Amino acid sequence: DVFYRELPKVELHAHLNGSVSFQTIEKLISRKPHLNIEHGMTAIGKGQRRTLDECFQVFKVIHQLVDTEEDILMVATDVIKEFAADGVKYLELRSTPREEKNTGLTKKRYIETVMKAIQQCRKEGVDIDVRFLVAIDRRNGTEVAMETVKLAEEFMLSSDGLVVGLDLSGDPTVGHGRDLLPALQKAKNCGLKLSLHLSEVPSQLEESDLLLNLPPDRIGHGTFLHPEVGGSASLVEKVVKNNIPLELCLTSNIKGQTVPCYAQHHFKYWYQMGHPSVICTDDKGVFCTDLSQEYQVAASTFGLSREAVWKLSQSAIDCIFAPDTIE
Ligand code: 5GP
Question: Would you say the CB of residue 169 lies under 6 angstroms from ligand 1?
């Protein structure tokens, strides 16, 4: 529907390697035929579902395909242009810096290459403002988290405002937020904005409570925070009291099976309460979607008028991490 495509949109929750399109995957596969990777291994098609665990296997396959500076440059450039073509005017991309011994890629080079892609798109006049969040993969523990924060801080100071914050993501069933608290606290103290994946699975009540005390600047998913799904009133109260926006990714949660169907998505709970809720894609490549489609699904599932959709999209601007005056 052209209304949703033309609607000026803000994307706040997009993992770089999960956002790689079919076309870009084709190019990567042709660069690395020896890996014997096929399309079915990098995306979850219409009507298909996977366990969350299987979704994380998909990321491993994509990481095999994206392991050089050239790959990252191509992937980031393509992803930015695709978001722009979908009517996204402001994009916060996030990615976990990786070191690849085989290709000589370092974490620093990784981030520099993403910066280069953002700058190239800007030079070419692509109509989108892009910022970057450095991601911590929770699986990698305390020390790596601390190193990542240091790296993010360096880039925050040297990247001309492109690096604005930190993301905490990765398999929610692995590791505990308690071990990452010092790193997250340090990030906050040095002025990095925090977007944390919170309560993505039901077993994270204690961790969410702990992390909400920071408090984070935004929450990814927050699927199991509210009492109706086994969360608690006190968790909800912390979110509401601190007015922490939620990044909500409908198709991702359906395909990853943490939410049984669109109608039962927690968007409804938070939106009805009038709490800042931002529609996002999460991994547009892996979940075969785009942001206009996500808005359309939200509108048809929850009966939103065009005016309400417009407002919803516009209110996302209040949740961005870039400072003050853009557009
Ligand atoms: P990358 O950071 O390599 O650019 O993007 C892929 C990574 O993002 C995954 O390895 C994972 O750490 C994180 N990620 C992507 N989608 C999800 C999600 O739905 N939940 C969580 N917790 N992490 C995700």
Answer: yes
ipTM reported for the complex, 2 dp: 0.99
- The pLDDT score that the predictor gives to residue 325 is 59
- Ligand 1, closest atom to CA 98? 3
| Measured CA angle at 51 (ends 239, 237), to 5 deg | 10
> To test ligand 1's pocket by mutation, which of 15, 99, 140, 176 has the most ligand atoms within 8 angstroms of CB?
15
CATH superfamily name and code, 2-319:
Metal-dependent hydrolases (3.20.20.140)
Query: How far does CA 23 lie from the centroid of its chain?
Result: 21
- Report pLDDT for 54: 92
Report the C-alpha gap between 175 and 183 in whole angstroms.
14
Q: Which residues are catalytic?
A: 200
Contacts of 28 (CB under 8 A, 6+ apart): 20, 65, 66, 71, 74, 75
The pair of structure tokens assigned to 188 is 């906050």
CA of 140 to the centre of ligand 1 (A): 13
The ranges assigned to domains in the chain are: 2-319
* 10-residue stretch averages of pLDDT, the chain, 327 residues long: 97 98 97 93 92 93 98 98 98 98 97 98 98 97 97 96 97 96 98 98 96 98 97 98 98 97 98 98 98 98 98 98 74
Ligand 1 proximity of 92 Cβ (cutoff 6 Å): no
Q: What pLDDT is recorded for position 324?
A: 72
Neighbours of 22 (CB within 10 A): 11
In angstroms, the CA 15 to CA 283 distance is: 6
